[in-house]
TrEMBL record:
The keyword Membrane applies. The chain crosses the membrane at residues 33-52. Keywords: Membrane, Transmembrane, Transmembrane helix. This is Amidotransferase. It comes from Actinospica durhamensis. It comes from the Bacteria.
């Protein structure tokens, strides 16, 4: 496992936001909202993976 709880938290946040992207896409909401959530999800996942040791 990891000693870095912030990395695990960032990965969980990224996965949560990714679920929101999928949900919003199924509901047919604005593409701008979906894009913003997707970018935030990607950033959170990337930073979580980079912090993982």
């Amino acid at each position: 496992m990891t000693n870095s709880y912030s990395a695990a938290l960032l990965i969980l946040l990224g996965l949560f936001l990714l679920g929101g992207v999928i949900s919003f896409a199924k509901q047919g909401l604005s593409k701008m909202i979906i894009t913003a959530l997707g970018v935030c999800s990607a950033l959170a996942l990337a930073s979580g993976v980079m912090r993982w040791k």
